Amino acid sequence: DSQRMGDSQGMAREALRRYCGYDSFRPGQEDLVDAILSGRDVLGVMPTGAGKSVCYQVPATILPGLTIVVSPLISLMRDQVDALNDTGIAAAYINGSQDSAAQSAVFEKASAGRLRMLYVAPERLETPRFRDFAVHHDISMVTVDEAHCISQWGQDFRSSYLGIADFIALLPHRPVVSAFTATATSRVREDIIALLRLTDPMVKVTGFDRPNLFFDVITASAKAKKAWIARYVRSHPGESGIVYCSTRRQTEEVARMLAERGVSAVAYHAGMSPQERDVSQRRFVTDEATVAVATNAFGMGIDKSNVRYVIHHNMPESLEAYYQEAGRAGRDGEPGRCTLLWNESDIVTRRRLLESGDENDRLGPDEREIVAASRRRLLDAMIGYCHTTQCLHRFIMRYFDDRDDAGGAAERDVRSCGMCVNCTSTPRTTDVTAIAVAVSRCVHDLGQRYGVGRIVAVLRGSKARDLVERGCDAVPSYGVLASVGEARIRSVVYHMVSEGLLSISPGRLPIVGFGPQAARTVDPGFHLEMSHMEPERVDAVAPS
Ligand code: ADP
User: Fold this and answer.
1) pLDDT by residue (tens digit) across 178-188?
2) So what's the ipTM on this one?
3) Number of other residues whose CB lies within 10 A of the CB of residue 536
4) Helices 365-387 & 486-498 angle (0-180, nearest 10)
5) How many Å apart are CA 77 and CA 466, to the nearest integer?
6) pLDDT digit string (tens) for 290-306?
7) Residue of 48, 53, 306 best suited for mutating to test ligand 1, as the one with most atoms within 8 Å of CB
């Protein structure tokens, strides 16, 4: 048996060299490949760019039968398949862009054993024609790419993913099932294993640690953000960088501002024509332009290794999204810098977008609520990152639960990692104990029945009619924070949520209640600090 294991390892390395052109596997890849080749189901969790594809492409070249790859992005299938055919792996796809004759040609090729890999969207598995094909052919492996789409707790829930397990159950010989994702929360992982019905899978979470990246978080007003970007970009001439903005308008504004200062910057967003975007992309990739100012539409298929910095002009919707975008810095292993600029209004904007949830039209009301609740949780983690006083590397590793056997950052002592702002600068923390105690008191006074807005209004002593009519001005905590800015109190509330002192209920009207750690606030030794607070603006609380 160990002989056979040795053989398959040799074959895997040989396939890696022959088809991918690499001499060695990256951490985690070989374990997943070996597990697949020994017939064991796997779940591989790796950030984008870590090399998930190799983990199923290499086995696909060795396994006797066909590998079906389930992938949500029809638009990328063609590129993926072309790239595989270029390297000598016989691959094809079947999707709605082809006519019936073209589909038949692919089925024939597969039937004749002349295909190693077949890419399909999940919906395809439900069609009678595809099912008929599949039950009559030797399917060695079903690979599920972007497997988090099966979970309602992730970002991109697709109900069609729920049918994959039934499709697999239909096959006369159960193939090995391999699933891959870059989304790593334990909830999503549990869903993938349960809903794909993986059997005793090898779960490998790896590659999240990026020790060459320096992480920085800066609170700044809208004006200060632009000034900071201009200063940073100009003091790093010739270095390639990406500035992510959340809207097309901001993207164009920032690109124009940089251009006016003599920086060769290109804009990139979904409002531009495909040709315009191609031009931007090409200029950036070839180093003709040093800076790309972009919305998150940029970077999907981009493989540029010498990006030295990634600046976020706004807070993204999740730590997953942030880490994926920030992670485009330093792909070559050389130092990279990732700076997140944010302020309170980013949180407000994000919450509003989240509640509107317009792209979820296809979902029923219950599903929509579950998706909204999970997005809220993702956003809370993002806000937690902005406020934490911990090492930022460690915060990220804990979030992704990266326990690489080789000893990822989560296991190492990273008290002073030297690669994040919290570990290098004298902490710019603010003691918010008194505010936190008042907030707790107020949540108690209001019987855990109101949202953040009402709590802030009560603490600041608002005379709003609705508030007075409900008697909220009669509680002991009324007006005790009259001299503290609204934004600051809100920040403390969100920080308390991420510390588990408070919780925000799901639902259209989110209600603030106590969290699992709430008892801490009544402990005499209770103390709470926050990083990266926006300085209190005197003008914001000036008497009117
Ligand atoms: P993912 O699917 O996880 O986003 P990819 O599979 O596209 O990542 O791989 C990202 C990049 O890393 C690609 O350019 C790929 O060729 C490269 N890569 C993957 N595995 C290795 C390896 N073992 N050695 C060197 N480069 C690799």
Assistant:
1) 999 987 677 78
2) 0.97
3) 13
4) 100
5) 55
6) 999 999 877 655 678 89
7) 53
